[in-house]
Amino acid sequence: TMFSGLINISSKELPKIFIGNYWGLGALGFFTLSQRMLVIPVSLISASTATVFFKYASDEYKLKGNAIKIYDQTLLKLTYIAVAPMTIGFFISPSLFAIVFGENWRVAGELTQLLIPFYFFYFIGAPLNKMFMIAEKQKLEMLWQALFFTLSVGSIFIGQILGMNIQDAVLLFSIINSIVFIISIYITREIAKGEL
Question: Is the pTM value of this prediction over 0.85?
């Protein structure tokens, strides 16, 4: 729905505004670059997977009343695709950013390293969230989007209130958002089983 789409966009954009406000434009620049380097490849693969998943899962759900077979196949494929590049990225990001963008941008590489767990689960969970639409569970999707928004933005507030530096705040943001996407994978799998 339009409302859940608005919440989704706000969940992604508001943390940037608060990071710039609380930790300054330098921190915002580092965060924005690291996020962009993760979002572009993740979104490209995730969006194309979501389209294919939606088609096959819709057919299976209409036919059987569940879509667990295609769900589990997609879940495993996305996990296999993500593990190697995300693991490599985790270990080389700070050095890679320093080489490509200059030593001053090493911090952006460190933030990328901290964001990788979140983007790992986002990469897997985002296409599978199509189950909300397939099973016509828009109210449940809206509740999940509200949780994502509250915890995503709330984690930045908590980081600021506790006086964290930008690295610790981004780590908290990443951990909380990882948990939110693990919850979405659990919920959408229950929907795919026809049990929710």
Answer: yes
